Amino acid sequence: MADLRSNQKANIRALRKLRQDGLLHEHAFIAASRMVRPISAWFDWARRMLLFFGSALVLAGVIFFFAYNWSKMEHFLKFALIEAGILACILASHLRGISRLSGKVLLLSASVLVGVLLAVYGQTYQTGADAFELFIGWAALILGWVLISEFSALWFVWLILLNTGAILYWKQVGNPAYSVRYEFLCLAMALLSGIALAFYEAGVQQGLKWLRSRWQRGVLLAGSLVALSIPTIALIVEPGEAKGITVFITFTWGVAATGGYLFYRYKLRDMIPLATIISNACAILLTLFGKAVFHGTGHDEGGRFLLFSLIILAVVSMAVFLLRSIAAKMAGETGKHGT
Amino acid sequence: MAHKKSLNIRELIETLFTQGLITPNQMKRIASKLEKPAEESKDPLYIRILSGVGAWVAALFLILFLGISHLLRSDTSGIVFGVLFLAGGIVISRASKTTFLNQLSLALVFSGNILFLMGSVKIFQVFRTHDLSILIIAHTLVVAVAYPFFSNSIYRFLAPTALVTLITLWILDKKVFSLIHFLIAVEMLFTGTMLLLKKPKGFLIPLIYSAAIMLPLTILFMNLTQVEIGRSLGRWGEAFREPLWPSSLLLTAGLIYLYFRLAGGLKQIRNDWMILAVLATILLGVFTTPGVLVAIGLLVIGYAFDDHTLTGLSYLFLTCFLVLFYYALNINLAHKSLVIAGSGGVLLLTRWVLGHMRFERVNR
């Protein structure tokens, strides 16, 4: 439960805490709840959620519908339906205005329908194109809408398309045809997330309202760090297999983790990215210890497992201790600076 | 009464006082509570996740250590080590609050629980008879003993969740699919009762979150057995032939009860918005699949209680559910499309009516 401070913004959680502690009676709690969250707030929330959930379900239903590959339905009818859907969404988005949430969701819907159109095109004409082309083409076709949308969910969908396209390119073309090593794929994915994160932070600094929610920060940072961690772990586990690019990515991981720590610790003071970085560092550190403990053969196989178990506990305890102390320090600093 | 500027707690309490809703004595007690330095609050979610994952992995290596050291050879060794580890974990957690010892106690209790289950399996030869019931009994026993004495919230959250997972697997294993509806009814009642407690005791909080995750977990498991990977598991992957309408019906009734409960009782039926919510939910119950109703229920409770964990769980569950539902092989895509798009249509129609109602109200 949250700690209560008098200057803290009143919210339902704080009121529930007061009621739980026996400091607010039921009628006072109800009256306070209505002040903090009047019925108009419930209406706004309900309309927003009905739009999100309703649109997500309708779009999923449309995808399911065309994935069924109706043999009795004429090709042209399929194309006409999807294209009409795209046009309707764009037109409605224009009429509503993309500054409104419904306009943004309609733009997102049109973007998803472009992917459905490309999939049905491939299904109908059996073009023989690789799947990565669908995703890259899809991302390219909707780029204009993404740029004007001011909608983080659409940006996120676009990034997923690019990442999926990159993975499929490496799997279908890069690796089999040109023997491109997996490290390059990891680097590309880390760069995609990293660049997106840099733009996100720049946008936040500029005060862009549509970037207010913080979940993107954690997801993008985790995406970047995980992609860099795979070659780093591989370098630790099998150093004999490593190439120059593996060492370069390991170095990049070190720079990204250190830079990220300093930036989110001292500049932005945000615990979620710090927890992401520290958890990621734990995984790398444990791989390093694991390699040291299990390397080579010895008589006491069981003892190594016991030792490694204790090492895991020690490393995680250190991380937990570190996170707690950083959180406490940051809370103190925030109080001191009055921010 | 809508406030344009958001109030802080002190201003809100003062308003309540001026309206005569709290006594001077209560006002004094609240003020003294607010002036007290912040108590040492519980760890945030990210620390608990890190701590839980770390203890889990450490527990697995502990068990591997016992296995490789040939300490689990006899039939009873699993149970003996299980009891020892559980007792050790509980004693350590009560004796010390240092971070490392807390982690160690959690790892010991995790491994003790697993070892006890492994020991029970060995003694009753579960794998020969393909009977999961002994695992359920053994785990219930461990949870019943460990929950009151071991105050770690991560264990208190995970252990009941694992119990429900085992029960779901047992139903699928025994192919008594009709029991799924019974399980969903029990979970719904339990979750509702726990979440709607006005003054929950501290030790029940992890169980409340565990209850909140049970329903989505059962629904996901049901779907998981119908996808390609699930079917390759053999016995658990056989077609799920039970119609889902009884669960949809139960969940629809549960959701409607929730609306009334949160809105302040049956008298709210006179409000047009409540009639709309009830009608939309009934229509949704006719159209949809239980997964969508569960996601909506979590979303509503999450918002009502300002609980971001439940809200996040609702989003995450809906995403996972839609992905698994797409790949489920027990019904065709055309049917799924109708169910999902129809549900979405009902929600969008409700939104339109809600907007229209508000417009009418503003005009009046």
Characterization of this structure:
The complex is a heterodimer of chains A (339) and B (364). Chain A has 12 helices and no strands. Chain A has 339 residues and is mostly helical. Helix content of chain A is 81%, strand content 0%. Chain A starts with 11 loop residues before the first helix and ends with a helix. Chain A has a domain at 213-339. Chain A has helices at residues 12-20, 26-36, 39-67, 75-96, 101-125, 131-149, 152-178, 182-205, 215-237, 244-267, 271-294, 301-337. Chain A is flat. Chain B is an all-alpha fold and 364 residues long. Chain B has a domain at 1-37. Chain B is built from 16 helices and no strands. Chain B is flat. Classes of the chains: A mainly alpha (339), B mainly alpha (364). The interface between A and B is large, with 84 and 90 residues.
Helix-strand blueprint:
The complex is a heterodimer of chains A (339) and B (364).
Chain A: H1 12-20, H2 26-36, H3 39-67, H4 75-96, H5 101-125, H6 131-149, H7 152-178, H8 182-205, H9 215-237, H10 244-267, H11 271-294, H12 301-337
Chain B: H1 9-18, H2 24-35, H3 45-68, H4 77-95, H5 99-124, H6 126-129, H7 133-149, H8 153-174, H9 178-195, H10 205-224, H11 228-231, H12 245-263, H13 272-287, H14 290-304, H15 308-327, H16 333-363
Helix pairs in contact in B: 1-2, 3-5, 4-5, 5-7, 7-8, 8-10, 9-10, 9-12, 10-14, 10-15, 12-13, 12-14, 13-16, 14-15
Rg of Cα set of chain B: 24 Å
How many runs of DSSP E, i.e. beta strands of chain B? 0
Mean pLDDT score of chain A: 90
Radius of gyration of chain A: 25 Å
Shape field of chain B: flat
- Largest beta-sheet characterization of chain A: none
User: What separation lies between the terminal Cα atoms of chain A?
Assistant: 22 Å
Main β-sheet of chain B: number of strands, strand sense, barrel status? none
Oligomer: heterodimer
